[in-house]
Amino acid sequence: MAEGRPALPPLRDVIARHGLAASKALGQNFLLDEQLLDRIAAIPGPLRDAPAFEVGPGPGGLTRAILRAGARLVAVERDRRCLPALAELEEAFPGQLRTLSGDAMEIDARAEAGEGAHIIANLPYNVGTPLLVGWLSADWSPLPWWRSLTLMFQMEVAERIVAQPGTDHYGRLAILSQWRSDARIAMKVHRSAFTPPPKVMSAVVHITPKPAPDGVQLKYLERLTAAAFGQRRKMLRQSLKGLPGALEALDQIGIDPQRRAETVSVAEFVDVARILSR
Ligand code: SAM
Questions:
Q1: Which of the listed residues 209, 235, 264 is the one where a domain comes to its end?
Q2: Which of 120, 147, 157, 211 is the most exposed place for a label (fewest CB within 10 A)?
Q3: Atom 3 of ligand 1, residue of closest alpha carbon
Q4: Binned average pLDDT, 10 residues per bin, the chain of 278 residues
Q5: Is residue 2 part of a domain?
Q6: Greatest pairwise CA separation for the chain in angstroms
Q7: Smallest Cα–Cα separation from 50: which of 75, 76, 69?
Q8: Is the CB of 56 within 6 Å of ligand 1?
Q9: Does residue 123 share a domain with residue 226?
Q10: In sequence order, what are the beta bridge partners of 77?
């Protein structure tokens, strides 16, 4: 047995032996191709001895790949049926994996996974966006507690995260994802790679944080983008008129109030939010 690569049974056998028929309600679409899983686990960069956090390990395909890469992993799974399969992985990778039984929406990932953790997950579709928004809204002083996010989403959500101004997908999620982080699509994944295949294509998004721009409070940026994109086809002078100080801030920076929200760059939104934050 090569170091870090214990012989493990095929994932299909694990699923059959533990009776893990996929549950639609839990967003279960499993990845079974170990080469693909190793490629996903390589996206954050070297993981040897690094803390990592996974949401929804399921039968443990991505979990194995993260463990093979050498991480110290905390994984939270809501489906109790998966726990025996995950206990086998805890044994196969002694001291590397701690499995928590519960709902990722209710767990304090920072306390469980520790500072500087890489978050890596093939997310359940129904909680993927709220979890991402929570991680992106963390305290940032000068960086967040997590080191990187490597997350599988439905393609449409991935496109909203990395969207550029002037495109249909550009909106609040793009600005939240990009104003103090770099966000890119690291890999597109065909629906046929999943068991069972979902209706739509997927993509792995990789997000790395940067120091936040000075003098900008997230709550003002959020109020601004909520107002601007609440009426995305309207001119800013209409959509922002209910937000105190916003039209004056546009004037101060020299942003034409006849523009629409979807034409305003992330940096321009940040400049307006900085004035509102004063
Ligand atoms: N990681 C596995 C893989 O890549 O094959 C499974 C991914 S599957 C898309 C999503 C997993 O998240 C399922 O195992 C599901 O039971 C789990 N899950 C769903 N909702 C959850 C929640 N709120 N908290 C934790 N896990 C959850």
A1: 209
A2: 211
A3: 30
A4: 73 97 95 98 98 98 98 98 98 98 98 98 95 98 97 98 98 98 98 97 98 97 98 95 98 98 98 98
A5: no
A6: 67
A7: 69
A8: yes
A9: no
A10: 101
**E strand intervals along the chain:** 30-31, 51-55, 72-77, 97-101, 117-122, 146-154, 181-189, 194-195, 202-209
Enter the tokens of residue 153: 């989403």
Q: What is the DSSP secondary structure assignment for residue 198, as one 8-state letter?
A: P
Domain that holds residue 227: 218-277
Q: Compute, in angstroms, the gap from residue 225 CA to the centroid of ligand 1.
A: 31
**DSSP H helical ranges for 21-169:** 34-42, 61-68, 83-92, 109-113, 125-136, 155-162
Ligand 1 pocket member 62 (CB < 6 A): yes
Distance 123 CA to ligand 1 centre (A): 6
User: What is the Å distance from ligand 1's center to 57 Cα?
Assistant: 6
What is the C-alpha to C-alpha distance for residues 243 and 247, in angstroms, rounded to an integer? 8
Please list, in sequence order, all residues whose beta carbon lies within 8 angstroms of the beta carbon of residue 185, skipping any fewer than 6 positions away.
158, 159, 162, 203, 204, 205, 206
Which atom of ligand 1 is the closest one to the Cα of 126?
Answer: 20
Q: What pLDDT score was predicted for residue 5?
A: 78
| CA distance to 178, 179, 257, per residue, from 232 (Å) | 19, 19, 13
Instruction: Dig out the tokens for 181 from the structure.
Output: 């982080």
Q: 265 and 163 share a domain?
A: no
- My answer on whether 143 and 87 are in the same domain is yes
Domain count, the chain: 2
CATH number for the domain including 258?
1.10.8.100
pLDDT at 144: 98
Annotated binding-site residue? 126: no
Q: 62 alpha carbon to ligand 1 midpoint, in Å?
A: 11
Candidates 79, 152, 200: which one to mutate for ligand 1, based on the most atoms within 8 Å of Cβ? 79
34: in domain = yes
